[in-house]
Amino acid sequence: GDADSFCPVSTHKCPFGNDKLSGIPDTSGDTYKGWVFKWTNYIKGYQRRWFVLSNGLLSYYRTQAEMGHTCRGTINLATATITVDDACNFMISNGGAQTYHLKASCEVERQKWITALELAKAKAARMQAESGKPREVMRAKEEQLMLGSKVEDLSTCNDLISKHGSALQRSLSELDNLTLTGEAGEKIRQVTERATLFRITSNAMINACRDFLSMAQTHSKRWQKALQAEREQRVRLEETLEQLAKQHNHLERAFRGAAQANASADSKSISGPGKGEVSDDDDNEFFDAMEEAPEFITVPADPQFHKRSSSNVSSFNSEICQDDQSVRILLVPLKKRRTRIPDKPNYSLNLWSIMKNCIGKELSKIPMPVNFNEPISMLQRLSEDLEYHELLDKAAKSHNSLEQMCYVAAFCVSAYSTTVYRTGKPFNPLLGETYELDRQRESGYRSLCEQVSHHPPAAAHHAISDRGWTLRQEITVASKFRGKYLSIMPLGTIHAIFEKSNNHYTWKKVTTTVHNIIVGKLWIDQSGEIDVVNHTTGDRCHLKFAPYSYFSRDVARKVTGVVMDKTGKAHYVLSGTWDEKMEFSRVMQSSRGGENGTEGRQKTVYQTLKAKELWRRNPLPDGAETMYYFTALALTLNEPEEGVAPTDSRLRPDQRLMEDGRWDEANAEKQRLEEKQRTARREREREALNQRSSSVPHENYKARWFEHTEDKITGEAVHVYKGGYWEAKDQGKWEDCPDIF
């Protein structure tokens, strides 16, 4: 029961159905493999060869086993020509010495290869053409809006093609089943075959369009965010220059006052300093005059201001106040965090050989290699809930509890935005393992997690911000592997407390489902309902995460919610998606009406004002697809840091080896750590047995930084932070920490 639980690794699935030889991958991957007959010579004729299409290159081998060491030939498709000879034959030539005469096993198989080759050729030619051109900046927001409109049209067309194509195929299949003879039967057979080929080509086009849609939306939003960031930076710089101008004006006035006072003192003095001499009192008089100016303005220590403008402002500061210690502007540079980790290695693993005996079992009891992991622990993943901490900052400033509820609900949804592409599982923490996330200087908060229980596995989390809020939770994860999908059910309550208003909120997490575990492209869905409750005022927000449905006309990953006061009156309506953004609208009037809902009840109709944006997901860093799809925050979580506790996840050796790409060593180290944990548990059990035999009361395992108590709000047995960690860090005293690594 000490091993890590399952995290799946994807295998590409053919969108045209099952195929024994090969399958065209979705366009998120560039590899297509399969057996094809290749013309060798007049003696041997056509011989079966293993062909691999990857990154615009078509290579072939005599056998699959040769892929690791002996390539028999390669053609670059960017400059190649593809010619179809007859029903099964086709030819590929680069115009030079390389020409492949190929034959597929059937016409459908040939068409699959032709479609894959044409797509790969177009992509390779486009990449070759763009490689020598500089990237251009988007011209204006109008062009982005136009692109968005066209992308929406493309998405609609994709859905219609898929829908009507499937309907056509069903109709033709039904027609084919009719008992017809002669010429009519032959015509129906020909039409059915042509429809099958059309569906193959259409599906390939749909996949390409879907990827184009995703990439266009991603790049459009990335440029919009960059443009907005530049605008905000310009405003901050303008404000800073205005403040510096005022500051300079105050200094000039103070200097003139000091000079006048000095001249007056010199005229009354019998003997003052001679020409070329310096008075020891000049500086003191200058400082006294400065201290008489209460309207003196300092530069704001905004975290973004530190990051973008600290060097410029520091130079201004040194010129204006180089001799004035009483009004020194201190801008301490923030620590520069890393923006990359080593790329994920491309290691293959037979998933089914591991999973076929695990159906129905608790996943935390299934031993798993690191190949299914991502190089962070569950404690670090839990800390990622603070990715959008600024929502809690805004909630803390809110004077209205219902508006505050909107920000808390948006924060609740934002925690899932990091999961949309993250199909790897985090490392199961060892008992006593901790993780600190100190962002007090950058963002005002400090966070601490500790693994407080091993059976069942439970992690306690406590974060406090000097901007007026506290977040705490204890989460236990239950999970089941059901053959085709994996269900992950987080158990536990999350608490958010705001210092100024004393409002205390609680909510729970929804169920996460990982689909296509064995075959197909992995994808994540979140589904369920959440009640965010303000126990101080009685306000409530009911959030609904709609499960994905192929037949639904709604946008995927949809989230809706209603904010109500203690009487049940609706004040705000929330809408959006858990992977992109959330908006809120003020309710002006509500009534019963509209279409009937479930069980014949009428739906409530809300008349609302124009929606405003509450939250929007940050774009992923460049190259995220090769770095486990980590966000900017996630890339920094496992960055080595001095002064942390010896039990900190950053010091876990198997996790560090995996991040460095040394997976074989990581697997060996993982087994050593798990065995060490089992040995420690057996030792505790022996001690407990001895204590019972000697009539000494047995004490269960106690967490180091959290104490077990009953929650006053929910009545649940939970672990609550008891203090002392940050003080121990300041003093460097870690003697009471267990040796777990």
How many strands? Answer: 26
Structural class: alpha+beta
CATH architecture of the domain at 348-592 and 602-729: Beta Barrel
The overall average pLDDT, rounded, is: 79
Quaternary structure state of the chains depicted: single chain
Strand percentage = 15-25%
CATH topology of the domain at 348-592 and 602-729: Porin
Largest sheet: 7 strands, antiparallel
Number of helices: 14
Membrane topology: Peripheral membrane protein
Keywords: Coiled coil, Lipid transport, Lipid-binding, Membrane, Phosphoprotein, Transport
Family: Belongs to the OSBP family.
GO molecular function: sterol binding
Question: What's the topology here?
Answer:
Layout: E1 32-41, E2 45-54, E3 57-61, E4 73-76, E5 81-84, E6 89-93, E7 99-103, H1 107-130, H2 141-176, H3 182-268, H4 282-291, H5 303-320, H6 351-355, E8 373-377, H7 378-383, H8 390-397, H9 401-414, E9 425-427, E10 434-439, H10 440-443, E11 445-454, E12 457-465, E13 469-481, E14 485-491, E15 494-498, E16 504-507, E17 511-515, E18 523-534, E19 540-545, E20 558-564, E21 570-577, E22 581-596, E23 602-608, E24 612-616, H11 632-637, H12 653-659, H13 663-693, E25 706-710, E26 717-721, H14 725-731
Parallel strand pairs: 8-9
Antiparallel strand pairs: 1-2, 1-7, 2-3, 3-4, 5-6, 6-7, 10-11, 11-12, 12-13, 13-14, 13-15, 14-17, 15-16, 16-18, 17-18, 18-19, 19-20, 20-21, 21-22, 22-23, 22-24, 25-26
Helix pairs in contact: 1-3, 2-3, 3-4, 3-5, 8-9, 12-13
